[in-house]
Amino acid sequence: MASSHARLEILERNGSRLRSALVQHQHLVSTVGQNNIRKVKTVTLLLPILVRTPSGGPTRGRHPCPIRTFELPALENVTIAQLTAANFYRCIHSDPALQLVESTNTGPPNTPPPTQVSRFPALKTLICKRVDFQSTIPIDSFVDFLIMRYEMGGEIETLVLDGCVNLPVGDVKRLDKVVVDVEFYTDEPPCDECGASGCPYCDY
To answer: Does 52 fall in a domain?
Structure first.
């Protein structure tokens, strides 16, 4: 079943082309191999996972998934769904560089502060499918996160919002101000240019 797998686009060793692979999420690293997983550019996460940090400490989740951020330095495109959004966001949001921006604590003496993001540093496109922007990823936190990623050299250039929940047009406009390319899709039926205030088709 497709929903029980993570879809990866893996760069061939010679760098000339991409090949697709369907890999069981529980055995992601062991199946793909350490050498190839560092070349992964696209990952689709559909099931609850456990994203591990470089120190090996897991975030909270129901199903362990041996994805470590330092193993995915080439990752450019990520698709998250409602079941996977919280763990992924918790991991990427806790990047040491972003935590430094949010905190007045400069860290241990004689330790240079990070100057750029270290978790998924190549990430350019984030696709959110049916993510709840109230209970799963609070919109205010998400906007601040996108701004901090930009300031620390990890700008997310394309944000796709597909059937997301608790995401009024006003919040989409906020996101549009901090991301170069925002694509917004809703399950609401077309309005036929009703002109009503707050209509996602007329206002956006």
So the answer is: no
